[in-house]
Specification:
315 residues, 14 strands, globular, 5-stranded parallel beta sheet
């Protein structure tokens, strides 16, 4: 790639070291040497075992489960690198935890996504690289540059190679219509969405479907797949309306609680996700397909280091 390995260094927390190694392999660099451990009282211990003075540093750490631990690892590592005289630190968060707490919907409620942005900045990050934020306005929570990637090209390319016919891309809620439109444009498909009401967190009640799905191949696209309730109910509603076959896809596979049981027995022919966060073996099932975001993050890191446009990746 022509990169100077002495001026750019990539470090990884413990959240997704496999992805970090993939990114390093794509770029042609070795992963930075550091030790991550715990003191006897549970506090996080970070030791950086190589010089970073004057270097352009990238810390790869999705703040996935356990969210508070992975977030603190990121903050402490950034602080260690800043105090070691790194020239610039970019926090690479393939998944941004607390993103669903992005606004106040009732009195005396925190905006945790903004708090996390403040913490990352104070810790020493001077740039953030992330993917498919749950709410686009989170970019504005930062007073430092944010490069926002999307997995849409990766997911769309996968489905395009399947040569599916008569396709409609459906968002499981009205808020994801923009995401569905992006996918539909890439596939040359029509779009629709499910209008639902959510009486309480992680509980979704499907109301009706906007768009004609009868006899069509449906691709339901979402950003976060958590308990799977939203997707499963959307799939059932689409099947009742006469969909021929239904696929589901999403960027971030949290798969918490009853997600695996729900999705493995659902109407979906296949669930396609990316590796922004690791999916442990016990949460993998036959319908699950994982795609790598490493090449996209690798190219973005190269462009940031060389002061080139990141948005050109999506032209």
């Amino acid at each position: 790639m022509g990169l100077d390995g002495g001026r750019i260094k990539i470090f990884s927390g413990s959240a997704n070291p496999e992805l970090a190694r993939e990114i390093c392999n794509h770029i042609g660099l070795e992963l930075g040497a550091c030790e991550i451990g715990r003191f006897s009282n549970g506090e996080i211990k970070i030791i950086v075992n190589e010089s970073v003075r004057g270097c352009d540093i990238f810390i790869i750490q999705p703040t996935s489960a356990p969210v508070n631990d992975t977030l603190m690892e990121l903050l402490i590592m950034a602080d260690a690198l800043r105090r070691a005289s790194a020239r610039r630190i970019t926090a690479v968060l393939p998944y941004y935890g607390y993103a669903r707490q992005d606004r106040k919907t009732r009195g005396r409620e925190p905006i945790s996504a903004k708090l996390v942005a403040n913490l990352i900045t104070v810790a020493g990050a001077r740039r953030v690289l992330t993917m498919d934020l749950h709410a686009g306005q989170i970019q504005g929570f930062f007073d430092i540059p944010v490069d926002h990637l999307t997995a849409a090209p990766i997911l769309a390319d996968y489905f395009a190679r399947k040569n599916l016919s008569n396709v409609i891309v459906v968002s499981p809620d009205a808020g994801g219509v923009t995401r569905a439109r992006d996918m539909a444009d890439r596939l040359g498909a029509t779009i629709g969405f499910v209008n639902k009401r959510r009486p309480e967190p992680n509980v979704a009640e499907v109301m009706n479907v906007v768009g004609d799905v009868r006899g069509k191949t449906v691709i339901v696209v979402d950003d976060i797949i958590d308990t799977g309730g939203t997707l499963v109910r959307a799939g059932e509603a689409l099947m009742q309306l006469g969909a021929r076959e239904i696929y589901a896809c999403g960027t971030h596979a949290i798969l918490s609680g009853p997600a695996v049981e729900r999705l493995s027995t659902s109407v979906f022919k296949e669930l396609v996700v990316t590796n922004t966060m690791p999916v442990p073996p016990e949460k993998q099932f036959s319908k699950l397909t994982m795609l790598s975001v490493a090449p996209l993050f690798g190219e973005a890191i190269i462009r940031i280091h060389e002061d080139l446009s990141v948005s050109k990746l999506f032209d």
